[in-house]
Amino acid sequence: MARTPSPRKRIEELRTLIRTHNELYYGQDSPEVSDAEYDALIRELQDLETKHPEFSDAESPSEVVGAAAAVTTFDPVVHAVPMTSLDNAMDEDELRAWGDRIVKGLGDQPVRYVCELKIDGLAISIRYENGVMVQAATRGDGKVGEDVTANVATISSLPKKLGKGSPSVIEVRGEIYMSTVAFEKLKAEREAENLQRLANNRALLAVPVNPRNAGAGSLRQKDPTITAQRDLSLWSYQLGEVVDGPEFVSHHATIEFLGGLGFPVNPEITVVDSIDAVVAFCRQWQERRHELGYEIDGAVVKVDDLSQREQLGFTSRAPRWAIAFKFPPEEKHTILKDIKVSVGRTGRVTPFADLERVFVGGSYVEKATLHNRDQVAAKDVRPGDTVVVRKAGDVIPEVVGPVLGKRPKNSQPWVFPTTCPCPLKSELTKSEEEADTRCVDSECPHQSQQKIIYFAARGGMDIEGLGDTTVIALADAGKVRTVADLYKLTFDDLASTDVFSATSAAKLIFELDKSRSQTLARVLSSLGIKHVGPVVADQLAEQFGHLDSILGASEEQMHAIDGVGDAVFASIQRWLAVPSNVDMVESLRAAGVAFDNVPKVSLGSTLEGHTILVTGKLAKYQRDEVKEVIKAHGGKAASGVSSNTTVLVAGEKAAAPKVKKAQDLGIPVIDGEQFDLFLLTGELPSGGAK
Q1: pTM above 0.70, yes or no
Q2: pLDDT tens track for 312-334
Q3: Are residues 251 and 372 located together in one domain of the fold?
Q4: What is the CATH number of the domain that holds 669?
Q5: Distance between CA 651 and CA 655 in Å, rounded?
Q6: What region, left, alpha or beta, does residue 25 occupy, with left being phi > 0 and alpha being psi -120 to 50 degrees?
Q7: Which of the following is catalytic: 9, 51, 104, 118?
Q8: What is the domain count for the chain?
Q9: Residue 118 designated active-site
Q10: Is 488:460 a contact under the CB 8 Å cutoff?
Q11: Residues 6 or more apart whose Cβ sits within 8 Å of residue 549
């Protein structure tokens, strides 16, 4: 059993480790641990140093900011006013504890706080003399940074000259960042270039894994013309040295001053007068962080009154009057154990990562998508790599890229398999027209299983108790091979497997029987015809009334339906050209599945003539229910904002881009309560949403 190191030895280990990571992060823009892992190391060191003050050291990385670059082509710059770091609050309790310390330190004086978004970028100090930009420097170790003037000068949003009345000397502190649009563009260009390099047997270029690293690397380019191509941006948020400037009494006044001089100031900066309001601000932006066009990893909270800041002062490394509230990490590092492939219902073969279990984005992750063959090659991820895993919000986990500094020496590029992983070992093919590799064997059992899973899913026949695991277990037991086999299952078939108890077997038989009378729209949607999802299926079911009529409709009949045209008609024809699909329709008919169940529910015509899009959650309705309610009142349910949309209903956590697009198009936006009134009266409230 390994012995626990002594406090002194562990402190020394942590200091060495953190200095190494500081150099990788600040000096080389190539971190080998995630922010969460780095924060955990800092916290462990701080806790040990607090418990063992006899081992204190003014040069400890817990007492200094960042790191100077070990090897650089940029000249050093001594900051006239040091660029300090901030202490962190990792949860609401720590944030409130900081608020309590502020109140105690000020003797119960009224306190106002300025809340800012914590931009995930690179801190910068930009110096102007007599209104002209003369120097820009990175933070470095807080005292000495690097001169990146020529590169910062390429940022289009940054004023190069200030107007009359500007101070004779002013240093503007801010954060340089790469927008998500600019990052995706750079990433796509790099991956496309890597594919060309692969074809020509040339060494691959590193693909940026997140906007922060991409922005930092772009800022430290030797050639400013390369930086100019990367479309960097800036938010300003603080003053450094100021000579002959106005006297300020509050932080928010300095922000307004910066905006008046032409510097970009983040529009979400908010002044509040209680720690409860601070917590509410942090909660709001933790939920809404993906609505922004740039990355944030938390919020920064500062005491607004500058005289109160003087009272509170500094610790050895950070101001007492400010704190950074860190959001839960959405990126983590873990080991890529293997790369495997799965086969979908259309034969599409998708590589996925088999990972060492890691907690990221609110849940544990063991598998993550790698999209397709070209993506694996362009990212150059390999079994054995330490990789960056991202799970933003509710998005499917994704492997962003490798941590090259931790790649094993014997690493070899992964080779895409040439045969299907199913027992038939069918040959895999890839056409030049698409990036996907496919198994084209119609007898492939993996495809059959995925078709059954799709058929039974909530968006299709909605057969409760028939999820992925159950379908695969039934297929492995030889009980089902096709969709039609579901309706041949008996209680004894299910009860004889290890998957079902007597109760769950009886329940699934009941659910299968109930699904025979499912609506025509759901039957059609469950078939898996490309371009025929729930919305189009609803339209076709309402227009034709019977599955045979839909599958036999002419091109002219399809064109007569709003929103349905060549693509849908061609897709249905291609689907019918596959004999096994036709067999499935006939098997479902023989099983007694209804082909003509089109509910005719009418609650009036108050919404007649309206095409309505609902975004976000409404308190009274499930997502599927609200569409039925709209149709039952004579309206049309839209799937996106277009010129045909007449009303947008914005519920809780509404998608901000959809709301903005509706507003730009002049489409009325109403909330859930106003929607209820709209249903009753058919009249839109004056003044729009509340």
Answers
A1: no
A2: 998 877 899 999 999 877 788 99
A3: no
A4: 3.40.50.10190
A5: 9
A6: alpha
A7: 118
A8: 6
A9: yes
A10: no
A11: none
Over 70: is that where the pLDDT of 243 sits? yes
Burial class (CB in 10 A: 0-12, 13-18, 19+), 427: exposed
The secondary structure of residue 16, as a DSSP letter, is H
Q: Residues near 516 by Cβ (< 8 Å), separated by ≥ 6?
A: 487, 591, 592, 593, 594
Residue with tokens 């849908």: 568
Residue 234 lies in a domain: yes
Question: Which residue spans within 90-225 are E strands per DSSP?
Answer: 113-119, 122-129, 132-138, 144-146, 169-178
Q: pLDDT exceeding 70 applies to what percent of the chain?
A: 93
CATH number for 540: 1.10.150.20
In Å, what is the CA distance from 348 to each residue of 372, 414, 418, 421?
9, 19, 13, 12
What CA–CA distance (Å, rounded) separates 265 from 173?
A: 11
SS3 491: helix
The answer to whether residues 544 and 595 touch, using CB atoms and an 8 Å cutoff, is no
Give SS3 for 282: helix
Same domain, 190 and 210: yes
Long-range contacts of range 439-447, CB-CB < 8 Å, 24 or more positions apart? 439/343, 439/347, 439/349, 440/347, 441/347, 442/578, 442/580, 444/343, 444/347, 444/420, 445/475, 445/481, 446/342, 446/343, 446/420, 446/421, 446/422, 447/343, 447/344, 447/345, 447/346, 447/347
Its domain, for residue 639, covers 611-681
Residues 288 and 237 in one domain: yes
Q: Are 90 and 251 in contact (CB under 8 A)?
A: no
Q: From CA 666, how far away is CA 86, in angstroms rounded?
A: 43
